[in-house]
Amino acid sequence: MTPRAAERIVRALCVPVALFAATLPAVASLGGDVVGEAALATTELDVERAARLLDQVDVDTPRVAMERARLSLYRGDCEAAAAILSAPNRHVNDEARQLWELAESCAGATVSAMIVHDERRGVSVRVQDERDQPLAPVITDVAVKVRDALRRDLGVALPRPLRIDLVRDLFSLSAVTGLPLKAAETTGTVAVARWGRVTMISPRATALGYPWEDTLAHEMTHLAVTRASGDRAPLWLQEGVAKRLETRWRAARPHDGEPPADLIAHRALVTGQSVGIDRLGPSIAMLPTPEAASTAYAEVQSFIRFFVARQGEPALRLLFMDLRGLEGADVDRALEGATGYLLPQWITLFEHDLVARYGKVPKPLGEGPTFQKHEARSIVRWIRLGDLLMGDGKPLPASELFQRAREKDPGSAPIRWREARALLMNQEPERAERALGGVEDLDVVHGAWYALFGRFGGAGGRREAAERAFSLGIAVDPLFDEVACEGRLRSESELPSKPARQRLCVAARQIPRE
Question: I need a surface site. Which of 171, 277, 279, 301 has the fewest CB within 10 A?
Answer without folding.
Answer: 279
